[in-house]
Amino acid sequence: xxxxxxxxxxxxxxxxxxxxxxxxxxxxxxxxxxxxxxxxxxxxxxxxxxxxxxxxxxxxxxxxxxxxxxxxxxxxxxxxxxxxxxxxxxxxxxxxxxxxxxxxxxxxxxxxxxxxxxxxxxxxxxxxxxxxxxxxxxxxxxxxxxxxxxxxxxxxxxxxxxxxxxxxxxxxxxxxxxxxxxxxxxxxxxxxxxxxxxxxxxxxxxxxxxxxxxxxxxxxxxxxxxxxxxxxxxxxxxxxxxxxxxxxxxxxxxxxxxxxxxxxxxxxxxxxxxxxxxxxxxxxxxxxxxxxxxxxxxxxxxxxxxxxxxxxxxxxxxxxxxxxxxxxxxxxxx
Amino acid sequence: xxxxxxxxxxxxxxxxxxxxxxxxxxxxxxxxxxxxxxxxxxxxxxxxxxxxxxxxxxxxxxxxxxxxxxxxxxxxxxxxxxxxxxxxxxxxxxxxxxxxxxxxxxxxxxxxxxxxxxxxxxxxxxxxxxxxxxxxxxxxxxxxxxxxxxxxxxxxxxxxxxxxxxxxxxxxxxxxxxxxxxxxxxxxxxxxxxxxxxxxxxxxxxxxxxxxxxxxxxxxxxxxxxxxxxxxxxxxxxxxxxxxxxxxxxxxxxxxxxxxxxxxxx
Lengths: 334, 266
What we know:
The structure holds two protein chains of two kinds.
Chain A: E1 8-12, H1 22-38, E2 42-48, H2 52-60, E3 65-70, H3 79-93, E4 97-101, H4 106-117, E5 121-125, E6 127-130, E7 137-143, E8 148-153, E9 160-164, E10 181-184, E11 196-203, E12 216-220, H5 230-240, E13 243-246, H6 248-252, E14 273-277, H7 283-289, E15 294-299, E16 312-315, H8 318-333
Parallel strand pairs in A: 1-2, 1-4, 2-3, 3-10, 4-9, 5-9, 12-13, 12-14, 14-15, 15-16
Antiparallel strand pairs in A: 6-7, 7-8
Chain B: E1 2-7, E2 9-11, E3 17-18, E4 25-26, E5 32-34, H1 36-51, E6 56-62, H2 67-76, E7 81-85, H3 95-113, E8 118-122, H4 133-140, E9 145-155, E10 158-165, E11 168-175, E12 178-182, H5 194-202, E13 206-208, E14 228-233, E15 242-243, H6 249-262
Parallel strand pairs in B: 1-6, 1-8, 6-7, 7-13, 8-12, 9-12
Antiparallel strand pairs in B: 2-5, 3-4, 9-10, 10-11
């Protein structure tokens, strides 16, 4: 397909309550810059049911225009209904670029969309630019477990599409005074044509883990030594208002649930402060946290690769250092 | 049940190192393995077969001749038949071209093996990590898809798949035939026995080339791929690390917390 406009679309995924999920709003941030360079509008696509709040959030986060598709059939995500809606919109407006969050649903929808539209799709990007030579989007993503970065272009087919990891970009500061054109697209999809049904929803047991939105992450690896070793990390995290992360080694050992995992097969995070305790810094882990503003590494092994990406390091035993940090922070607060 | 599992032979990415001089991947000595997520998909199919005697598992892989080693590994842990899809025409395919070719190959294999009830794929391959080929195959075959599966239960003419979502799990159901992509399961893939390994070594791997398939060459390989890798590079790590050593752990920790406090991080 040929692009009819220079517009860039951001698929703003909604949750079960019709609210915008963070990643869609985050993507409006790089989306604004790319749209400017492409010379088109920044358009948010909101599909769901009762999505007024999501539409408002997209406007406040910088969208020039919102394409809104509402209906009961879109209340929960389904491959069939959402692919239909996004393809129908794309055929009508023919944007040049589409960004989706690399969430389970975004990565379910993106490839289905790209196969139907015969467009190029790049998965799980961690950086986006406009390629100076071609004017295409340069999709930058880790490959081979984070050992290499690849720069991928889609020279001809339009729209050029990419999924982008949650947590890579910061959400724009919402500006509630902004206004934008809201276009309601009356697209209905017969419910009986949806070939998958969600028959049960099982919420994650225990507390919710908010890594992607955290300003501070206290993360533990193999050096933590066991499930009980995470207690001081948790205490420090609570003290400074942060979340607890973990390396794959600690998750695979069964010391902490997968929801805490940072890295290539876990979450990508970019907090203001990332404290890596007893994490050696395998390339797969670095792929998930090297965008952090400030990294502190605490490790017994002075040769651990984590020190190469750290701003501050202490060569020492986290079992000594973390409790001391707790005491020091308490002293500051006293 | 008649099941297909799509598998890919991949380098073990946890063993990959970067040559510090040339900044390229050192592939030498890196073992080739069955993509681990495909292994979970195969184990899931094997468990369905255990519970439904008379079921059949066919494995299909696209790749160079060596990929037959991966197929033999699958034959040793539950697969009944194996097809290798290999042709220079297919080299350089991106996910869209790959899934197009695979969907045409599946059509061909179904002529020989009967229609599949479930087509399994791993969620993604650990070398490319795209997670795109499964859903794209489903689109080309016009089948429902359930991605990020961690458990599959049969219920009459449907599958019920426990699906990983960010907020927990959903149980998602679809009528067969359908495509299911698997992530890491709670169970580990079974090990081969000496006997099954021997049998797999001798088994015949069916070879397919573009001549066996109804494919449009213009949609295969580099030519049929809308995305192009313009370049690859090693991620730059150029931090100026300040190692804090004030003589004792206490003093160093005090200094660290002070630094973080001054930077308004603590």
